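Quick start: load a record and inspect it. Here is Isochorismate synthase:
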Amino acid sequence: MFFELLKTVVDQYTKELPFVVYRKPKETSVKAILQEDSDIRYVKDFTESGFVFAPFDSQEPSVLMQSDTNMSEDYFPQFKTTFELGNSVQVNQSRKALHINLIEKGITHIKQGEFKKVVLSRKVETECVTSPIDLFQKLLDTYRNAFCYLWYHPKIGTWLGATPEILLKTENQEFTTMSLAGTKKYVADKSPEWGNKEFEEQQLVTDYISNVLQNSVSNLNIGERESIRAGNLWHLRTKLTGRIEKGNLASIVKALHPTPAVCGLPMESAKDFILGNENYNREYYTGFLGELNIKSEKDRTSNSRNQENKAYRSIKNTTTLFVNLRCMQLKGTNAQIYVGGGVTQDSEPEKEWRETVAKSKTMLQVFAID
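Running the structure step on this input writes:
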């Protein structure tokens, strides 16, 4: 039963032992991975198996949750319709001024030729008296099309999120990644109207990903650009697929992270600007997380009457990593919500600010009283 799974997770949390509980987009299965000790383990070469939790700064190590106990139960929530918070989001004018100044500074550096795009973010702090388990269940109830998770390690902290963006998905040697950028507010019964700024921003991400992968993968295919909805927001997305060589996962992850969708272009100069000017540590926001090298058996035939072929099974090795967007960190009775947006030379600081306000509502909604 699903609530037995939650009870086990609560017991783990009470004992201050590491765990992660999560559900993939459009699935009903909620999975939990429990670690029996409080040691911090790190990914060394991406040949390990478990659940990875990686920071934004790729120079910092990625945490590996060891799969000492695995659980899985179906959950069928009554999916809630995201609602409009309107003016209930209080704006701190001094923080607004600081973020707009940061955006203006980023635009100045772009016009000076230091980089083409930079993704700038901020923290939104709010009081939190709701338990992490209840917040996680609200995420499940509200965001069917997102990767919803609750991650805890006593030596690192408690994180929750509902992210729409895949960094990388592999099944044996086949892979899928995506270029996700551009944001518009969702309006009922209306399709998004994209401008040059959003198209350019998203194309920069697509071009970057295809360029860094073309010498590391084979059969690279770039799909059509499409609009996708994530909660109360629209985004532009392009899927990229292909094949990777066995044992080459680490180099692919290194090439992809951080993408221009969370950092900028060129990556190194944009990253240096972020680390030197955002005035806070992103930690695991805009990092990545997910299943790493999970093995399962797969029947070679779907014909249940063919018992002879049923004896032949293949081992499927899958990795599914998501970019850690639309997330929060819990610290005592305080929740820190992380939001950001891509800045180009055509950006308007006031609009960029409003975009971060819209994005903050994804997490703020789970604090609302039903």
